[in-house]
Amino acid sequence: MPGMSDQKYTVKRISREQHLDFVTARPSVSHMQVPSWAAVKPDWRAESLGWFRERDGALVGAGLVLLRPLPKLKRYLAYLPEGPVIDWSAPDLEAWLVPMTAYLKRLGAFSVKMGPPVVARRWDAERVKAAIADPGAGRLRDTEATVREPPAVDVADRLRRMGWQQAEPGGEDGFAAGQPRYVFQVPLAGRTLEDVQRGFNQQWRRNVKKAEKAGVTVDRGGYDDLAEFHRIYLETAERDRFIARPLAYFQRMWTALNAEDPDRMRLYLARHGGELLAAATMLTVGEHVWYSYGASTSRKREVQPNNALQWRMLCDAHALGAAVYDLRGITDTLDEDNHLLGLLRFKVGTGGEAVEYLGEWDFPLNRVLHKALDLYMARR
């Protein structure tokens, strides 16, 4: 039998059904790599790609690629957010990626962007807290990690040798223009809810109790409640200085994702005395659960609706058998004046860990057009 390095793969378009079957058979795949994500992004053309092992014709990899057309040209930016879903530990990474870039070039792509779902480093809650408290620590990326994942270094070296370029980690706040490189996760595998709550810091435990005592209720909402969620989401966007998505985006997301799996997207609403104070969307793919979008008002903060909301979502993620509850992006900037530091502190209170992924990588197929895109993105 040939060794792994002798394998050859063919990349071609697959059906949504084949793609979904492949994803469903895996414990963890990004919510941006399921076929239904294509319907959430109507400004992009989308294709499901399959990797077939030439030796036996088996489907061994899949990826959702989004194609963004250049104005007036039939050329595309090809983007695989948090993907593709291939064997990233394979010693023959070239055999997986070369046929992908060749296929995308034939489609008319001038540049390929992807986000390998490969973890590079982890910092436990204590390490992050110490970094925040250290006046000499400017960024999380410059502080000593609790765990380093050696395979990530190997993957990064191989990508560079193949001509892939690592995108910058992001702007001043550490958030990338694409998907977040730094996220915060609460591991749930092999832990009871009591273990999880014991991992909370004192403030978090106190706030969960306070919300319960004050009579904060957290319920699941439906499609019709998205408008109410969106109302306080707009308030949050103004307060936290980010560009809000329109209500239609969340409605499209709900319809598309839940048509694929009735439990793919959930909405949670925290109320006190009948008044909506906080809300959040939750996404599930296999054993991975994400806190996706959050919203809260500035009213009645003393009843701690955000802690109540997250605790309910954590409990439900645990009941679903999730291995990880993912609180998504965090800033890696530890500057006291940064408005995102409060959000990092809130997430650290869960006792989870900060996780750094390899980030996003670009492969220019046409250097002139790729450079033009870079200049355009820099001006935005």
Chain-wise SSE layout:
Layout (H helix, E strand, L loop, with lengths): L8 E5 L2 H9 L12 H4 L4 E9 L5 E11 L6 E5 L12 H15 L1 E6 L4 E6 H9 L13 E2 L1 H13 L2 E2 L15 E6 L5 H7 L2 H13 L2 E5 L4 H15 L6 H14 L4 E8 L2 E11 L2 E9 L8 H15 L4 E6 L11 H8 L4 E5 L3 E4 L2 H13 L1
Parallel strand pairs: 4-5, 13-14
Antiparallel strand pairs: 1-2, 2-3, 3-4, 5-16, 6-7, 6-15, 8-16, 9-14, 9-15, 10-11, 11-12, 12-13
Helix pairs in contact: 7-10
What are the main properties of this structure?
380 residues; alpha+beta; Aminopeptidase; 2 domains; nine-stranded mixed beta sheet; seven-stranded mixed beta sheet; 36% helix
CATH superfamily of the largest domain: Gcn5-related N-acetyltransferase (GNAT)
Considering DSSP H and I runs of 4 or more, what fraction of the residues is helical? 25-40%
Structural class: alpha+beta
Strand content: 25-35%
End-to-end separation: 52 Å
Radius of gyration: 21 Å
User: How is the main sheet built?
Assistant: 9 strands, mixed
By CATH reckoning, the class of the largest domain would read: Alpha Beta
- Low-pLDDT stretches: 170-176
CATH fold assignment of the largest domain: Aminopeptidase
If helices are DSSP runs of H or I spanning 4 or more residues, what is the number of helices? 12
Overall pLDDT, averaged?
92
Shape: globular
Strand order of the largest sheet: 7-6-15-9-14-13-12-11-10
| Overall number of strands | 16
Topology pattern, helix = H, strand = E: EHHEEEHEEHEHEEHHEHHEEEHEHEEH
CATH-derived architecture of the largest domain? 3-Layer(aba) Sandwich
**In the residues, how many domains can be counted?**
2
Keywords: Acyltransferase, Cell shape, Cell wall biogenesis/degradation, Peptidoglycan synthesis, Transferase
GO biological process, one term: peptidoglycan biosynthetic process
GO molecular function, one term: aminoacyltransferase activity
Protein name: Peptidoglycan bridge formation protein FemAB
